[in-house]
Amino acid sequence: MNTQEDFLNGRILLIDKPLEWTSFQAVNALKWAIRKKFGLRKIKIGHAGTLDPLATGLLIICTGKFTKKIPELQGQIKEYTGTFTLGTTTPSYDLETEVNETFPTEHLTNESIQEATTQFLGEIDQVPPIFSALKKDGKRLYELAREGKQVEIKSRKIEILEFEITRINLPEVDFRVVCSKGTYIRSLAHDFGKALASGAHLSKLRRTKIGDFNVDNATSPNVFKEKLEVNTPT
């Protein structure tokens, strides 16, 4: 059972972020639940690596003194699973925006799709999507994108340790990726489509691991709140 002191001294909480929740909403839900339970005016709480609203999966949330561990946790290797949809692209590289271009897929074979993964293994240069929270000249890139502004985005070095295709049912292709901090799976989807000369966008994403932490051991924000109410001594 968790006490007020546990949360203040520091806890690492594994949360399975629901679809369409922002990472901030998930942190806020836990913060309010803990504050309400113990009558706290404030408590330090934060997450170790954001997830897009259209992604689900593992969000590590640190409380109290453990918020100091956030930079270390953010640097951990991550694993994702999900789906690329081939033959179409979107400006955001995912389902946040509408399809803007279509491409042929008749030339694709299971072998060519599997083989294309090898181009992305190891250390590679990746350009983050324009629809991202990165900042340029004090403004977030997605704000500039929505204003229709052209922005030059510099590539960054990332590392893909594992990249496997787990199901092919065109136009959908399921994948599993193990990668370094700073990797954008949306950009990987876009670049993968380019490599296949078919275009692609990310249509489903789930973060399954961060370092040794696994989403199988995570709980939803609502279940966390329920358990806190029932199991914690006042």
TrEMBL record:
HAMAP family recorded: TruB_bact (MF_01080)
Domain Pseudouridine synthase II N-terminal: 37-185
EC id: 5.4.99.25
Origin species: Flagellimonas marinaquae
Name of the featured protein: tRNA pseudouridine synthase B
Class of enzymatic activity (EC top level): isomerase
Annotated InterPro entries: PsdUridine_synth_cat_dom_sf, PsdUridine_synth_N, tRNA_psdUridine_synth_TruB, TruB_C
Function in brief: Responsible for synthesis of pseudouridine from uracil-55 in the psi GC loop of transfer RNAs.
Molecular functions (GO terms): RNA binding; tRNA pseudouridine(55) synthase activity
Keyword tRNA processing: yes
Gene from which this protein is expressed: truB
Residues of the active site: D52
Limits of the tRNA pseudouridylate synthase B C-terminal domain: 186-217
Family: Belongs to the pseudouridine synthase TruB family. Type 1 subfamily.
GO biological process entries: mRNA pseudouridine synthesis; tRNA pseudouridine synthesis
Known catalytic reactions: uridine(55) in tRNA = pseudouridine(55) in tRNA
Cross-referenced Pfam families: TruB_C_2, TruB_N
